[in-house]
Each structure stands twice: as C-alpha cells, then as structure tokens.
Amino acid sequence: MPFARPALLRWPVRGVRLGRRRAIAGGVLLALVVGLVAWVVRPTAPGYATESRMITVLTGPDGSIPVPLDTTYYRPRSASAAHPVPAVLLAHGFGGTKESVAPDAGELAGRGYAVLTWTAEGFGKSGGQIHLDSPDWEVKDAQRLIDWLTTRPEVAKDARGDPRVAAVGGSYGGALALLLAGYDTRVDAIVPEITWNDLANAFLPESTGAGAQAGVFKKAWAGVFFGGSATRPGPGFVLGRTGSAPSPDAIVAACGRFAVDICQAYLSVATTGKATADQIALLRRSSPASILTRIKAPTLLVQGQADSLFPLSEGDANARGIAANGTPVQVAWYNGGHDGGLGPRSDQDRLRFLTAQWLDHYLLGSASTPGAGFTYSRIAGIDATGNDGVVAVGYSVARYRGLSGQATTVVALAGPSQPAANPPNGTPGALSSLPGVVSPASLTSRTVHDLPGQHADFYSAPLASTVDVVGAPTVQVRAASPTGEAVLFVKLYDVDSKNGATLPDGLAAPIHLMGLPATLAESQPVTATLPGIVYRFQSGHRLRVTVATSDQAYATPPTPTVYTIAVNSGVSLPTVPSEQIAGANVVWRWILLGLVVVLAAGLASAIWLGRRHHRLADRSVDRAYAETPLVVRSLRKEYADGLIALSRMDFTVERGQVVGLLGPNGAGKTTALRVLMGLIKPTDGEVYVFGHRLVPGAPVLSRLGALVEGPGFLPHLSGFANLRMYWQSTGRAEADARFEDALHIAGLADAIRRPVRTYSHGMKQRLAIAQAMLGLPELLVLDEPTDGLDPPQIAQMRRVLRRYATNGRAVIISSHLLAEVEQTCTHVLVVHRGEVVASGPVDEVVGDSPSTQFDVSDPAAAAEVLRRAGVGSVAWEPNGSLIVDLDGTPRAAVVAALVRAGIEVNRVVPRRRLEDAFLALVGGEPTSSRPSEGR
Amino acid sequence: MAVRAQADGGAAGYRPEATLTFVTELRRQASRRRTQLTLGFVLLLPLIILVAFELGGSNGGGGGGSRGQFAALADIATSGGLNFALFTLLVSASFLLVVVVALFCGDTVASEASWGSLRYLLAIPVPRGRLLGSKLQVSLVYSLAALVILTGTALLAGTLRYGWHPLRTTFAGEIANGPALLRLLGILAYLAVSLLVVAGLAFLLSVFTDAPLGAVGGAVLLQIVSSILDQITALGSLRVILPTHYSDAWLGLLSSPIQTDGMVKGAISALLYASVFFGWAWYHFAHKDVVS
Q1: Average pLDDT over residues A695-715
Q2: d(CA A678, nearest CA chain B) in Å
Q3: What are the start-end ranges of the E strands in A733-784?
Q4: Which end of chain A lies in a sparser environment, N or C, as judged by fewer CB atoms within 10 Å?
Q5: pLDDT tens-digit map of B21-78
Q6: Alpha-carbon dihedral of residues B21, B23, B26, B30, nearest 10 degrees?
Q7: Using CA atoms, how far apart are residues B136 and B203, in angstroms rounded to an integer?
Q8: How far apart are CA B126 and CA B130, in angstroms?
Q9: What is the pLDDT of residue B61?
C-alpha cells in the first residue's frame, strides 16, 4: 500500500460497511425526509392581498359630517376587472376593531370574496362616537362603504352603482347587517350572528309579554357594555361637528366615546332601573325590529344557545319578522354565544359550512341550495380527544317553527304556595350567570346559587321518559304582593339525585307583575315564557320551577318585600322532531370496514398461499440419491459484504459412514452445517438429503438431527422437560422419540430433573447430543460434539457415535481435534477456505503406511541399518531425526536391529499421521488470511 | 431400525401443521417465570388500588375538576364496581398495559434466539411462517388474558366493595348496569385493538434482535416518544399519523350518545400500523439467515 490511512481517519465503527446499496438507500431516504420537511414548512403566500387605508365618510343625520374610518380591504389575487368577484362587508362586535375579524376575513378572501373590514366609529382608530348602530351614523357609514366598494373595478356589480355585496357580522356587527339590509336595498344577503331584535327588549326583558316599559333592567350586561369603553377615549376622539373643546369632565369620564344621547339614556336607566318612552324609542331606532318588514336580503340567522345578553328569543323575533315578508330565512342555533364563546368544534364547523353555503348561493349563484331551514345542537358528552372538552351533536329540522316548537309535553308541578322575600337593594342576590364568562361549564352551569328564603320551589314527579326540549318552556304563575308589584325570576331546573340541580345555560326569565292583590286567592295567573333552551331532561330526573326574587344580573326594587307565589299549571316543554346531522365522519366507518375486510382477506390468502407454497415447493427427488443420506453439490455461500464463506463444496455421505469435517478456523465448516440445518440459504449449489432438495423448512429436515454452535435449552426447565418440550414441538408420536435411549446417551442420572441453568457446559453438551438423537434420525449432524467433555466422556461419545452409524444411519462430525477425527471417523473431509481439499476414508487421506520418528546417536549409520532392515523409506529431518516409513516391518524388529548395530536409540515416536496430511493439505498456516471470522 | 419415510421426504409422523402447535407454545410460555409474574401482578393491581382507596379515605384531598376529565373520573372511582373497573383501566391503559403487551410480544422470539433454541426449532423443521404465527398467537392470547384479568378482577373487587351500581360519568350522567357493562367491554375491545400497534412493533423488533430487552424496551420507548410528540400542539394535524394520537378515544364510549368517531379513526390507524409491522416481521424472518 502506498500509504496507510492514519488511525484517526479510519472508519470509526468497525464492521459497518458503507456498501453502495446502503448508500443509495440512505440517500433516497434522506431526500424523502428533507423533501417532506421542506414541503411542510414552506412559506405559503396567501391567496389575497390586504390594503389598509383610512376612508373618510360623510355621515350624520344630514350626511355632512366627515368621520374617518380605519379599514382593511382584502382583495383576492384572482380578482380583476375582467374577473370581478362579489364583496362582503365584515363587521366586528362591540368593543373590537377590524383586527377582531381579520381571521374570518382571511378565510372569506381565501374563498374568493373581496372583503372589507372596518373599525366602527367610536372604536379603535376610527373617528366619531358610538351611536349603537344608529341609522343616522353607523348604518350610514356602512352605506358609504358600499359606495366605496362600487368604485372598485374588481367588485362584481348587479347594476350601475349596485355592487354584489353581503353583510356579515356578530353581535354589534350583526345588528348593523340587519339594519343595513333594511335601509339599503343594494345588500344581497346577510348573515347576522348572536344579535338583537329589539335593544329595549334585550336590556329590559319582561317574560310575560308586558314589554320593555315594564322590563327588568339587565344591569350586569349593560354595565359591561357601557363600562368597557367609558374610560378609554381613543386618538380620534371627536365630539360634535365643530371639533370644539371637550364637554365638561364629568360627562367625559362617564361617557367616554359614547354619543351624548346614548350615554345620558344609559345613565338614567341604570340609575332608576326603568326606561322612559323616549329612551325606549331611542333604543328601538337602533334595532332591527323597526325595519324587519323592509329586509329583502336572504338572511342566515345565527343565535347562541348559551347567551344571556341576546337570548334565543331575540333571534326568534328576527326570524319570524323577516320570514313574514317572504324573504328566505335560515335559522342556526349553536352552543355558544356571549356566555359560551365560539362553541364546540362541530358547531364551529357547522356554522362555517352554513355561512359559506349561504354566501356561495346568494352571491355567486352556485347551485347548492341551502337545505334545512333550522339547525341546532345539543351537548352530548366529553370530547375524547380533549380538543374542546365537550362534544355537541347537531340536529336539523326542515322548517323553523319558532320557540314554541312543534309539539308540547306538559309536566305537572306540585307544591304549596310559598313566601319569598325580596332583599333590600337586591343584595344578597342569586347568581344565575356571569356576563361573558366563557367556559364549557357555563353551558350546564352548576354554580347557581339560590338564597334561602328568597325563592319558591315547585317540583315535578320523576320523569317517566326522556324529554328533549327545543324551544321556550312556559309556566303559569300566580303571585301576591303587599306593594301591588313584583319583580320575579322564573327558572327551570333539572334536578338529579346525584348531581343536584342544573340550570340549563344559566338562563332565567325576569317577570314584572303589576296590579297584584295582597292575597294569593285573588291573584290571576300569568303565563311566563321561560328562556329558549336546547336541553335533554333524562327520565328519572325531576323538574323544578323556581321563582326567585333576586338576581345579581338584574336590577330589582330596593324596598324589601315579601311575596307569595304559586304555580297554576304544569310546565309545558316544547319539542321538535329532528334528524341528527350525520357528520362527514360516517365515511370513516366505511373505511374501517373496508380495511378490516381487506386485512382479513389478505391474512387468509397469505396463510393459504404459504401452505400451498410449502407443499408445492421444489422438493424434487433425485432418484439417484434416494438412498444417500447427504449429497452436497457446488455449495456456495457469499455474504452481502463480499465475504465468501463457502466457495465450492462437493461431498457425499453414505449410509453407515461417520464423516469428519476437518478444517482450520474460518474454513467454512459451521457455515456448511448451518446450511444443512436449513438456517442459511446458500448463494449457489444444492444439498440433497435422501434425494430431497434441502431448503429452509423442507420436511426432509425431520430425518436429520443436529447439534450446531452449541446447545440451546430453556434454562428454567429441567433437562427432561426440555427434551419432552422439544419432542412435543415436533408434533410426532411420543413413542417415536426413544427417550430411554436418549437419556442413556446423555448419562446425566439425577441431574436430568434439575433446571438446565444449573448444568455445566459438558452436561449441556451431552444433553444436546441426546436431543439431536431423539427419534434416532437417519442423519446426525454434530458440530464439535466433544467440546467441553472430559476424556472418559469423549471416549464414551466416540463409542456411541461409532455404534450410531449402523442400521443405515450416517453421522457427520465437524471438529478441529485431529486425534478425535482420526479415532472416531471412518471418512474425513478436509476443508480449507470454503473448499473440500481432500476427501475419502481416513486411511486414504492419511496415506498408506505409518511413519515413525527415530532419534539416534549416529543418523548416517542408522540410516544404513534401517535400509538393510527393509523399511520403506528414510527421510532426514533438519534436527537430525529420521522419519522412517516402516512399510509393514515391525517396529520392535527395527529397534533390535539398531541396537545390535551398536547405535544408541534415544527416542522412537510414532508420527501423528493425520496431522501430517492435514498440515500438508492446508499449507501449514495456523489461521486463514480472511479479515473477519467465519466458520 | 430405519425411520420410515413419507412421500414428501419427512420422517414418519411428521406433519408441518402439527409442529409447534398453539397448545405446545402456550405451555412453553406458561412455564416461564415472567409470564406467571406478569399475570400475577395484573391480578393484584386492582386489589392494590382498592387498598389505596381505603387508606386514602373517602375524599382524598386532591382539589377540583380543574385537571380535566381524568380528575373527574378519579373522583367517582369509588361509586360502584363499574366505576372502579373503569378507573383501573384508565390509569393502566397508557403505560402498564403497553409494557405488558410489549413484554409478551417482544420477548417471545428474541428470548428463543438468546437461549439458542430458535435454530433447533427451525431444524425440526417448523416452517418459519408457522413459527412466527404460533408465537404471535400465544403472545396475543396472553396479552388479552392480562387485559381481561385486570378488568375482571377490578370489576369483581369493586363490586364486592362498592356495590353493583350504575356507571356514573361526569357528563353523561348515569348509565344503567347492562349497557354500562357492554360499554366496558367495548372499551376493552378498543384498548386491545390499539395495543396491537405496540404488539406489532415489539414483535418486529423481536425478530430483528437477539436481546429480548432491546425488543421490549424499544417498543415502549417508541410509544413514549409518540406520546411526547402528541403533546406538541404546534404540530397540528400532523399528529394524526402518530400511533398514540387516538389512545384516549375510548372516552367517547362514556358519552351519551356514544362518540365513535375517534375510535373508528384510532382503529384504522392501529390496524394499519399493526399490519405494516407484522408484515415486515414475517418478510424479514422468512428471508433472513438465522445465526443464533
């Protein structure tokens, strides 16, 4: 070698060869992995461009007041003057900005719509004040924005100045969408979500139908509304059209960016708990209730079931009002809202799907007409994958029937009339829900506290069957009050012996009764409409109607009073027959079924094919070798890394022979025996055992017994148990095993009952030979059988093997103990470097006559004497010894002749004959020159 | 006396279908200490949990349901036999059962190789496919037995101690006894299917290596790595390909109505992984040179 690699640069891990195949496979795998990672992390450009700008609109009662609006316009890259797209006005909720709806805008733009989002006046960076969606201000702003959209060439137009546009928004933005559709006919479709119908009814609800004049003020929510932006005047803070000096500090501190009239109305109502007619009219102006009949744009109304601010009744009023006009209306309820947030994943998916379907149909004119008129969902259980915590099941109904449902179940209530006290100033008050607390727990709120002495309870009997309520239950109550007035809160509980009482969605119905008598007997029943819910009352549960006198979310009369309350009827529960919405997941069940069928079929066919292959495998019987135990022809075994264990082996073993396989380490003896056992497939060549071709798993292997590479036993079982377990694994009859013969050969006496792990190596070896002889196989293959045996055992084993090779059986032994092979075997095969270099009977391989070594004092004279004595040949050794081939002459006679001739004889040693022949055949090298060990 | 030969070359009485039968292999594995110890431990575990609940008192101090649905289920573990069995399954499904299944399936071929008895089995000759088939069948039977013993003992012990009450769950209310028992069996079936992944991987490693510990440890380690990756929510929907992603899907059987979506997807994932692993193991073993 010109130069040797320094030790540091040699391949660090010995034995790992970087073959070409491995390098190619590794390279392909690496490329795949890198490609996959790159594809996953690639930066994807969105399919739209965003443009932010301030648009100044002229608004106000006469349309002359400039108000700057902070807008973002999302333009799809596919839109152009040649390919115009419809537009969507996306409005945000109260207290938000245009950023609040940015993700939804991105999604809509991704679907190919041009989206315009803006921050409503009075919020964020926009100018102006908050007018609560007044037609003179916010609605006019939106109309001016539609005008702006008309100037964009990529927005599709219905007519001159009339773009194809839809309005979508939630809560504050939802009411804007409804009002915009009522005031501007250019709007082609609307999707208002969780919004109000009549703001006066929303903030001053009254559940017997007496109207907002008698309403109970929802002080907690109103405080959240008005308190939120009271202390945060924005940079675009503008009061009045002249931009003059700000108003007195008191009003600024209380009103923030609210318009003065709104602010003063709130302060008055919050102080007194009542609204005047003017204030109610002000709130009504900002409500869709005033213009419902004018809405012609198809409406998808989404309302939240977990919403105490704008409950389902608001959505119901909107739906019925708009539908009365013949306008297409679809209603969708979901398990979220101002108290419940976005709701479970399935609800979000359903709403997204419905919105997309609605817009696609009415803006793009796509064919798929929106299906069911009404969808809702019910909480069904825990989400197993832990995403939302709850799972909601969706239901669909063909037509929306309102809060009274299609059928009614009446559940009777029992209970005497009870007194209930109204606490002074409403404190302490019961807690039914906290505004805006978003958690799955609020969907079936357990943290409801009714204070003792402040409520009257009326129970029903345990339900006979499960009732699924969809809609607003009703109940008739009677009350008596010393003051003639009563503010009460009617709640429907689900009472369970284990879980206690549950208030569905935490909703309570406030009622304000006037003209009440002082005693109960004279009172007239009034029908209270409870809040709309979707809830399952399980059979065995009881219903409880609680009429309470206080609630922390509402304003109650400050004067302490004691009312007397009774119910007049049972509670009517509305139900609706509906169909469960089958998720897209149904297809997975079919996939599973298909997979199971395919796997079962595959398994069955693999087993059948395997058996067939096993039976029909090429077990050609070579008739010529039918009686020969072993014929090996041109056997070659080459390993993948280039190591040649067997280069070419040819030999035959006949019946009655004990054949010794002799060779140095690495010659290929054990490899050849492994091939014989069927453990290794040769690269080339054939092996025939009794004429049958030997392949791994061939049945003819059952006529062969083997001990290769040492014993293999189950260490926890006794020797005898091991033999029995082995024979049971063969599946053959116990009588065929000849256990007695085997145990006699093993010669272990009592140790046969001890666990194998206590055996010495020699004992295990004897047991392994006995296991190989179980069933007396016709061909015995033994690899170093005397390894670990002491000389008496070796002698005994020699006798056993000699005796074994009778009655038509044959034995093949591999060893590198020359004396053993010479004494035990009848035939010998010398193996060197994977080839048989000599074969034949021991005598032939060794040579004809034995030789003797003489050490004498006078070699020359001795040689003369020996020649005259008639020996075969005399050879001289370098150290003066004579190697004499006696050729039949008795050794004693030769020694006597030497002594008579006066020559001193120091040593007479019979030469190790096989060692001569062996060393001659293998070239005298102690080890082979192969780089790695292999036998 | 020469052995009579058959037409296919085999010795008299040799039939490939009779070698290493299911019963023989069953007895072979039953004699091992690890089989007896594992099944014994699985039998004792519910009793240990029962004793723990007794010692811990009625309401063992731990706070609230803020830890999620697991904590909620633990709180009601003592309300009946069915609840107790459910709790036992819950705490052992994620790790203990994985180790047990990996032990049975990963130790079987590798330990024969390490003792050196594999080559003698193959020389009988037991066809390679049949050897794997027998060993796999017996390993799966023992794994299933461990599962059933665990659940059965928990059910029995829980019923004797806490009574035969309907199953209480946090969200679905109460489930009557009969349907609850069926649901428990459904949970057991789903666990068995999802543990096929572990069985497959352990069996595959067992065919590759001589060290039983390598096969068992490797399968458990990969299961742990998969669980860790599953916690990284940043991976998003890529987590679907992880074998342990749907390991909790059996909680869907506790809702009303029963949520089967997760279980269906989990079953698909498990079957795919298991078939890949088992197919690879068969292919490799059929073609490899057995040197141990």
Answers
A1: 90
A2: 6
A3: 779-783
A4: N
A5: 899 999 999 989 999 999 999 999 999 999 988 887 655 444 444 445 556 666 778 8
A6: -140
A7: 8
A8: 7
A9: 46
Q: Which residues does chain B have within 8 Å of residue A41's beta carbon, measured at their own beta carbons?
A: none
Q: Of all helices (H) and strands (E), which one includes residue A284?
A: helix A277-285
Q: Which of B121, B126, B255 sits opposite A381 (nearest CB)?
A: B255
Q: Distance between CA atoms of A672 and B267, rounded to whole angstroms? A: 47
- Cα distance between residue A79 and residue A48, in whole Å: 9
DSSP characters over A316-364: HHHHHHHHTTT--EEEEEES-BTTTBT--HHHHHHHHHHHHHHHIIIII
| Helix (H/G/I), strand (E/B), else coil: A653 | strand
3-state secondary structure at position A846? helix
Over residues A552-566, the pLDDT tens digits come to: 889 999 999 999 999
In chain B, the largest separation of any two C-alpha atoms, in whole Å, equals: 80
Q: In the 8-state DSSP scheme, what is residue A699?
A: G
Q: d(Cα A196, Cα A170) in Å, to the nearest integer?
A: 10
**Owner of token pair 């609020």:** A442
Cβ contacts of B287 on chain A, cutoff 8 Å: 681
Considering only CB atoms, B31 lies closest to which of A592, A716, A730, namely A716
Which one, of A931, A869, A926, A933, lies nearest residue A898 by Cα? A869
User: Are B173 and A703 inside 8 Å of each other by CB?
Assistant: no
> From the list B3, B18, B123, which residue is nearest A778 (CB)?
B3
Cα–Cα distance, A166 to A363 (Å, whole number): 7
Q: What are phi and psi of A660, to 5 degrees?
A: -105, 130
What span, in angstroms and rounded, lies between the C-alpha atoms of B232 and B226? 10
Nearest chain B residue to A582 by CA: give it.
B261
Q: How far are the Cα atoms of A122, A126, A227, A254, A258 from residue A251, in angstroms, in the given order?
A: 16, 21, 13, 5, 10
Q: What is the tens place of the pLDDT at every residue in A175-196?
A: 999 999 999 999 999 999 999 9
Cα end-to-end distance, chain A, whole Å: 28
Please tell me the predicted confidence (pLDDT) of residue A787.
Answer: 84
- In the DSSP assignment, the letter for residue A750 is G
Cβ–Cβ contacts within 10 Å for residue A228, how many?
12
Are A182 and A294 within 8 A, CB to CB? yes
Q: Are B199 and B186 in contact (CB under 8 A)?
A: no
Q: What is the C-alpha separation between B143 and B97, in angstroms, rounded? A: 8
Token pair belonging to A16: 């790992």
Residues of B in Cβ contact (< 8 Å) with A591: 264, 268
Q: Would the CB atoms of A678 and B125 count as touching at under 8 Å?
A: yes
Phi, psi of A536 (to 5 degrees): -110, 120
Distance CA A136, CA A128 (A): 12
Q: Who has greater pLDDT, A150 or A433?
A: A150
Closest CA to A315 of A223, A207, A226, A201: A201
Question: Tokens 């145990």, residue?
Answer: A743
Q: What is the CA radius of gyration of chain B?
A: 22
> What's the number of CA atoms in the CB half-sphere (13 Å) around residue A254?
14
Q: Could you tell me the CA-to-CA distances from A153 to A17, A141, A168 in Å, in that order? A: 68, 21, 22
Instruction: Give the pLDDT confidence of A287-297 residue by residue, as tens digits.
Output: 999 899 999 99
Residue B38: what pLDDT? 95
User: Which tens digits make up the pLDDT trace of A584-612?
Assistant: 667 888 889 999 999 999 999 988 887 78
Q: Which of A911, A897, A898 is CA-nearest to residue A851? A: A911
A761 HSE (CA, 13 A, CB side): 9
Alpha-carbon gap, residue A530 to A511, rounded angstroms: 10
Question: pTM of the predicted model, to two decimals?
Answer: 0.72
> Which of A71, A59, A320, A87 is CA-nearest to residue A186?
A87
- Shortest distance between the Cα of B12 and any Cα of chain A, in A, equals 8
Closest CA to A247 of A262, A237, A235: A237
